[in-house]
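#struct-pred
JK: can someone run the complex with 3-methyl-2-oxobutanoic acid? inputs below
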Amino acid sequence: MKSIHSFKQMKQEGRKISMVTCYDSCFAKILAETEIDMLLVGDSVAMVYHGFDSTIHATMPMMVMHTAAVARGAPKKFIIGDMPFLTFKKGPTVALDAAAELMRAGADCVKLEGLKGHEGSIEALIGAGIPVMGHLGLTPQSVHQLGGHKVQAKESREAEILIAEAKKLEEMGCFSLVLECVPSELAQKVSVSLKIPCIGIGAGVGTDGQVLVLHDMLGASPEFKPKFLRQYSNLSENTKTSINQYVKDVQEKTYPSAEESYKA
Ligand code: KIV
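RT: done, structure tokens with the ligand placed:
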């Protein structure tokens, strides 16, 4: 079982870290038999599984239920529990309670977006012995303020702020950082200047690792095609083909066969 120390060592040795989202036991069991380093029970579950149009709809009961399901399916994988919208903005007490629930559900650490305004919550979590992964750049819980899911920190002033915030998160004791949708040169600069591993999504090849949303990389929603996404499978087409074949077999009475039926 990998730990926060394994990831620091991987960075020191120049070995890239791989991470995907996972929300349920079925996929967790499959991922448990792969080489993937980390599983993120992301608040993207609200969009991918529950059909909402943003991650602000992720709630604590939702995150706890999915974290527990993933932990049952992949008990030996390192699991990150995403802190849902506002749980870390209401102060250290609410943040500690929320993180405790995620850790009890099976998370090995928590991830939270941004820095400004919730430094106290981050300090309290780390002070309580809970490993914290930061998340800068495109922070989807602020989608309404950012004006959409867009590339961030293209201007030099924004880039400076991001670099300063990344350094601050490291100083505060975060063990790792997600950099989402930022220019590759900036992501590389941040990754090189920090000792903690930086995991990128839409942030180029210069980070210490990569994360993708599982359903996106497996091709579950082929219409969602951001520039950074590489589709490794065709889940949507394969599922449709399989289901249509099943419907045909049922209609033509070729399913079930005698071998697929019980005898008295
Ligand atoms: O919730 C999520 O899926 C994420 C990743 C995009 C990093 O935070």
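RT: quick notes.
The chain has a mean pLDDT of 97.
The CA atoms of residues 220 and 236 lie 5 Å apart.
JK: thanks, will look after standup
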